[in-house]
Automatic annotation (TrEMBL), chains A, B:
The keyword Lyase does not apply. This is TetR/AcrR family transcriptional regulator. It holds the Pfam family TetR_N. It comes from the Bacteria. Residues 35-54 bind DNA. Residues 13-72 form the HTH tetR-type domain. InterPro entries: Homeodomain-like_sf (IPR009057), HTH-type_TetR-like_transc_reg (IPR050109), HTH_TetR (IPR001647), Tet_transcr_reg_TetR-rel_C_sf (IPR036271), TetR_SbtR-like_C (IPR049445). Keywords: DNA-binding, Transcription, Transcription regulation. SUPFAM superfamilies: Homeodomain-like, Tetracyclin repressor-like, C-terminal domain.
Amino acid sequence: MTAPKRPLRADARRNREAVLDAAGELFAQRGDAVQMDEIAERAGLGVGTLYRHFADKQALLAAIIGRRFEAMTTLARAADEAEDPWAAFETLLYGYLESAQADAAFRFALLGPEEPSWNDIAAEKTDFSAITERIVQRAVDAGRLREDFRADDFVLVTRGAMANMTGAGGWRRHVTLLLEGIRSPER
Amino acid sequence: MTAPKRPLRADARRNREAVLDAAGELFAQRGDAVQMDEIAERAGLGVGTLYRHFADKQALLAAIIGRRFEAMTTLARAADEAEDPWAAFETLLYGYLESAQADAAFRFALLGPEEPSWNDIAAEKTDFSAITERIVQRAVDAGRLREDFRADDFVLVTRGAMANMTGAGGWRRHVTLLLEGIRSPER
DNA sequence: CCATAACCTGAACCTGAACTCCGGTTCCGA
DNA sequence: TCGGAACCGGAGTTCAGGTTCAGGTTATGG
């Protein structure tokens, strides 16, 4: 479907990369709010060129999000290397959240409702989910996470933390509360 | 500042109320996304009339949010009546979150960054915060909430839960995790 | 070095949604 | 009952921002 009949012309490939870079940086910074003209200018190109490579703004955003998801999968794979299950879990959790903090577009994609145009990303998402599931399971089996903790809960936790990323960065506190519980220890 | 020189004319007051009702319902349902024309139609009025009563969309939204905050303050006051500090806390927490679930506009105001136009609401917000602070402190003093729990943490917790309100309602699970902690009980 | 297909540019265009404006209507005090 | 201030309606205006396209440019195979 995305099979290119012929390899892209040299300048076209270069420009495509420039667009991706510019968009990546701007989206990360201000999320959905950046406008196409800005991206074009930052990339040193005309708007028309953006539209030659991406059908519309959504498609461009989707491409960026896809990239981030690949990075996330790499990170998850790395975390899974750790022998200590808890270390693996923490590495994944904090790595994920730090990336989210650094990238407004990523948060946008993760916090908003499911967009139909995100479909291209389904594959990357699935990969990531699989690894996450394994890491979570390992931590549970090792008795470091509550018995009934599931991969879905990982999503809940991260969404919760991401919601506390605007303004003062209270998200670490939020994660701490989540880890240790709100209630008094001695019950 | 909002002091009306003369009491509003009868039809004006009636219409103002109709606008508030229509806007309240639609905003609660679809948040910021509703358009002025819709509100006017639902209220059985022309758009012009909306603008006679509210400077712009922001102002109308702010008025609605203000209402919700008053309701929230009432709820908090009621919760504070309970003798049991933990009961008071739970009543406040779940009451707050259930209201948030029922009202997209409320979530919008609470999840988004601070808007300058929200300033009119500062007063209601302060009232609510004061009561919340008292309830939290009571629960801490009674040894039911962790020593270092502060009113700010209440905000973190609620933001986290609200972020999990889109789609399947996983927010209750999120709150449970928060209350009990993610980690295995026996450490 | 050509021919030509692929590519680029950016001003113009289009759309949707907030907001305005003024002729017509309604309420209210005297 | 009447004058006029306050109010209402909703078509039309404005504006921001995404998208297009005619005309010029450039890479590439032969």
